[in-house]
Amino acid sequence: MINEFNFHELKAAERLPSPSGTALAIVKLVQRDDATMQQVSQLVKIDPALSGRILRFVNSAAFGARRPIANVQDAVMMMGMQAVRNIALSLSLIGNNSTGNCSEFDYAAYWSQSLAMSVAIAAITTRERTVLPEESFTLGLLSDIGRLALATAWSEVYGECLAMAQDEQLIALERERFAIDHNALSLILLDDWGFPQIFLDALKLGLEPETRNTSRVTRLASQLAFARQIARFCLADEDYRATLLTDLKTQASLHNLGETALIDFVDEVIEEWHEWGKLIEVNTSVTSPTFL
Fold first, then answer.
1. Which long-range contacts (CB under 8 A, 24 or more apart) does 62-65 make?
2. pTM of the shown model
3. What is the pLDDT of residues 166-220, one digit of tens each?
4. How far is it between the farthest Cα atoms of the chain?
5. What torsion, rounded to 10 degrees, do the Cα atoms 31, 35, 40, 46 define?
6. What contacts 263, CB < 8 A, 6 or more positions away?
């Protein structure tokens, strides 16, 4: 049992998920006041896989470009340095953490559902703009990063927690064992990586499914709650999808989606989710009700 959580100690000991290679170079560059788009573009260009994925993203429906973008520099110019940094960070974290040492942690299901949430929140913010879809995509992908962090930092003990707990008991077990829970750790990591405060506030508020639309933060929080429901639905088997549908309809009503429109919308998200899975090598064929 840990009596006091020390983020900086864990970070210094390299026991937390972190970017590497080109992604790390981009993160460090964008932190500088004198960083330029050209410098970011040059870093992206030296990594063919990252270049291809950024071009795929900027030409996706979520981004909504009015014309096809064929070169990296134009893609970086259109996306902006922060969005490029976020995409590079996300892809690096996936590549470095597709497997791990926590035997009870389902890495494939974790990334699959994280990707489903990222596609869902990008689609939602495309319909009703609160933040840029290309930025909400990354927020969705990393919104539950605290779970992965606990599985990375304390593989054996966290595995014991997962084996013992039903999902609603997991938060209490995490706090007891690690003096922090995965939701709080997600916020700490996103803050450390420089995500905007509105993202952190909305993510915290979005854990409450009954969030109402009043301010920009609460609208984004409501969108995140809706995206979580869709992500659960994506990974559910047919029987569990029937159970989830009632809650999904309730959330959809807050976003002006009737039943027929909801079905069409979710079908589009699922199709995009599978396409992204192929692009960034995330398995979208797994079924699991255990995350988010």
1. 62/119, 62/122, 62/123, 62/126, 62/133, 62/134, 62/137, 62/272, 63/133, 63/134, 64/126, 64/133
2. 0.88
3. 766 899 999 999 999 999 999 999 999 888 899 999 999 877 655 455 689 999 9
4. 55
5. -90
6. none
